[in-house]
Amino acid sequence: MGKNILITTAGGSGIYPFIEAAKTSKYDINLVLTDASEIAGALYEVEKSYVVPPVNDKNYLCVLKEIIKKEKIQYFISLLDEELIFLADKDLGVKTLMPSKEALLNTWDKIKTYQNCPEFFSQTWILNETLNLKEIWKQKPILLKPALSRGGRGIIIPEDFEELEFYAKRFIKKSIPYLIQKFVEGKEYNVSTLHDKEGNLIYAISRWKFEKRLIKSGSKASVVEKNEEVINFALQVLKKLGLTYGFNNVEVIQNEKGIFLLEVNGGRIAAQDMNIVKSGVNFLDIFIDIVDNKKVTPPEIKEGMCNIKTSRDIWVEFKEIENKKRTLNEYLNSCSSS
C-alpha cells in the first residue's frame, strides 16, 4: 500500500527536497501538493495537486479536509510558518510532526524569539519611540530586521544615521514591528534538525552558506560542512525554545567573537535541505518511520555536498492552470454550502 502524503505551500523551493526524497524513498510514496497560487510550479510536477485558499481564508480548513478525505491522506507536512501556527491545534486526522503552537509563535515572531533567549543574539533593541537612535548608531554597523518575516526579507543596513532615523520613524508610524541589531559578519550557517516524538535527536546537519552576499535571503549556495560548535549552539537554542520535536532550522553567524543567532524556522525544513537528501539521508523516510512508531537509527551524513540554486522554467498547458482554479471553486462552493 502506498504512502499518501500531503505537503502544503508548494510554491517555494523548500518543496523540491520532498519531491526528490519521494523519488528515492524506500516506500511507495504518493505526494499530493497544494498551494494558494495556481502558478506554483511544483503543482505541475506531481500527479495530484490542488489550489487552495490562503491560510487566512474562512474556507481554508474545510478545503484542506476535503482534499485529505478525497486523496485518503495519511501523512501531513506544512512548509509555511503562518500555516503551521494556524494548524498546530487543529485535528486533521493525519499523522504529522508539529511542535506546540506556543513554540511556533515564539519563532515566527523574532521579538518573542529575542525575549525568550536574548543571550544568543548580537546586541539587540526592540524598535520603539523611546529608543535613543543616536546612541544606538554609535554601535554601527547595525541593521533593521522585521519581526514577522523569513529568510532575510525586509532587512535594511543603513548607510548613515539619517537613513536609520528615516526607516525607524517610518516603521514606528506604520506600527510595523522591527528589531535593531548589531551587524556581525562571519561564516553563516544553518542547522537542520529532526527530533522524534520523544525528543531524541535523529540528526543535526550544519551547512555553510558560502556565497558572498551580506544578506543571504533565499540562499543561493551552501555546502554540508560539519561544525560541532555551531550544531551544539543550535541545539541549545531549540531546547530553550521548546523545539525538541519534529523538523526545525536554525540560522547563525560564527566569527572570532562567538556564534550569534539570526533566526529560527520552527517546525519546518529549510530549502537547503536538498543537501541532506543528496548526502544520502532520506528525511521523508525517517519522518514516516517516526510517525509510524518504527525504530529509527541516526543516519550517516556525507559532507561536501553543495546546493547551488538556479531558476528554471516549468511548461504546462494553460488548460491545466484553469482546471486547478475550477477545482478550487468547486471546493469553495461545497464548503460554503455545508
Describe the protein.
There is one protein chain. Among the domains are: 3-97, Rossmann fold; 123-182, ATP-grasp fold, A domain (Dna Ligase, domain 1, 2-Layer Sandwich), CATH 3.30.1490. Strand 8 (187-195) and strand 9 form a beta hairpin. The longest helix is centred in the last third of the chain and has 20 residues, at 318-337. The protein is α+β, with helices and mostly antiparallel strands. The protein has helices at 15-23, 60-70, 81-87, 101-108, 110-116, 133-137, 161-173, 228-240, 274-278, 283-291, 318-337, and strands at residues 3-8, 29-35, 48-51, 75-78, 124-126, 142-146, 178-182, 187-195, 201-209, 221-224, 246-255, 258-266, 306-308. It contains eleven helices and 13 strands. A six-stranded antiparallel β-sheet has the order 12-11-8-9-10-13. The chain has a four-stranded parallel β-sheet with strand order 3-2-1-4.
